[in-house]
Amino acid sequence: MSKKVLILSGSPRKGGNSDFLCDAFMKGAQEAGHDVEKIFINDKKISYCRACYVCRHTHKCFQKDDMTEILDKMIEADVLVLASPVYFYAIAGQVKTMLDRTLPRWTELKNKEFYYILT
Ligand SMILES: Cc1cc2nc3c(=O)[nH]c(=O)nc-3n(C[C@H](O)[C@H](O)[C@H](O)COP(=O)(O)O)c2cc1C
After folding, report:
1. pLDDT at site 24
2. The domain containing residue 106 runs over which residues?
3. pLDDT 10s digits, 52-67
């Protein structure tokens, strides 16, 4: 059965180690007949979570940036692939900022296959 695969490529280096592995994952998934999209996080406008908790009631963020569309796609996907370089023993700030912004609908991010690529 064909699955919707969303690859979140989290390094600022296009074609770098993480992005290269994302492309390898994408090639394999496409060859297996899956519907694959890769998002290069660094190209997107994603502001920090302000922890205002308005989203607790609205399930939407008051900030209008690219995260609305990314979060919709994350929830629609059957398979999530998150790639990040290691920056000082942690994931890259861009990736963490994106993960924090899943707060409005994080409870919907379930029943998925999840792959983590760390370089
Ligand atoms: C700000 C910064 C912090 C880093 N911290 C670490 C680290 O703690 N441990 C490590 O092994 N490599 C560290 N590195 C190296 C990167 O993790 C490594 O080169 C990675 O493969 C780069 O991935 P990319 O090609 O996808 O950008 C750091 C690089 C940068 C730019």
Report:
1. 98
2. 4-118
3. 999 999 999 999 999 9
Long-range contacts of 20-23 (CB under 8 A, 24+ apart): 21/83, 21/117, 21/119, 22/81, 22/83, 22/117
Q: What separation in Å is there between the alpha carbon of 93 and the centre of ligand 1? A: 12
Residue in 88, 96, 117 to alter for ligand 1 test, most ligand atoms within 8 A of Cβ: 88
Give me ligand 1 centre to Cα 19, in Å.
13
Contact 117, 82 (CB under 8 A): yes
> Which tokens hold the place of 117?
């690529």
Count of domains forming the chain: 1
pLDDT digits (tens, 9 = 90+) for 53-108: 999 999 999 999 999 999 999 999 999 999 999 999 999 999 999 999 999 999 99
